[in-house]
Structures are given as C-alpha cells and as structure tokens.
Amino acid sequence: MCGACYAESPCHKIEWQFKGKQGCDRHKLRLLWECRNCGAMFKIPALWVDGWCHRCFTPFREMEKQQKFWIM
Ligand SMILES: [Zn+2]
Ligand SMILES: [Zn+2]
C-alpha cells in the first residue's frame, strides 16, 4: 500500500498486488503491508473502502509520512 498514491486516488492499486513488488514506482516509497502506528496487518484490499486502519483508524493517506524511501 502506498499512502501517497492513496491520497491522490483513494482506491487500491492492482500493481501493489504483484508478487515481489516492494515499492511504489511513482513516489519511490516502500509499500506498507501493516499499520506503522499499531502494527495491524491491512485487510484484503477489496475491503479498503474506509481508507483507514481498521484498528487504530489512521488514514492511509497519512501513512505516506511513515513510508521509507525506496531505492530500487
Ligand atoms: Zn505511490
Ligand atoms: Zn493501525
């Protein structure tokens, strides 16, 4: 999950699901698979209608700040 992508258009990107995909090509940020705030694993993308962590309610778009810079 890329918070920066999510901030631009709040829906799941299919390319995040590709096997071996580690980072976002557009923002050069490492993808997140769990909440940095509470450690909860994200639910399956089809359920991401809410746009925030189901446990601590941190909005996905705010997680952009917590994504590590990704060097290919
Ligand atoms: Zn992105
Ligand atoms: Zn959380």
Q: Can you walk me through this structure?
A:
It is a single chain. With 72 residues, the protein is mostly loops. The protein has one domain (3-66). It has one helix and two strands; from the N terminus they run αββ. It has a two-stranded antiparallel sheet with strand order 1-2. Strand 1 and strand 2 (29-30) form a beta hairpin. The structure holds zinc ion (2 copies). One zinc ion (ZN) binds at residues 35, 37-38, 40, 53, 55-56, 58.
Describe, in short, the structure shown:
With 72 residues, the chain is low in regular secondary structure. The chain has one helix at 3-8; strands at 23-24, 29-30. Strand 1 (23-24) and strand 2 form a beta hairpin.
Top keywords for this entry?
single chain, 72 residues, little secondary structure, two-stranded antiparallel ribbon, 8% helix, binds zinc ion
Itemize the secondary structure elements and their pairings.
Layout: H1 3-8, E1 23-24, E2 29-30
Antiparallel strand pairs: 1-2
This protein binds zinc ion (2 copies).
Distance between termini? Answer: 17 Å
Indicate the proportion of strand residues: 5-15%
Count helical runs.
Answer: 1
Number of E-state strands: 2
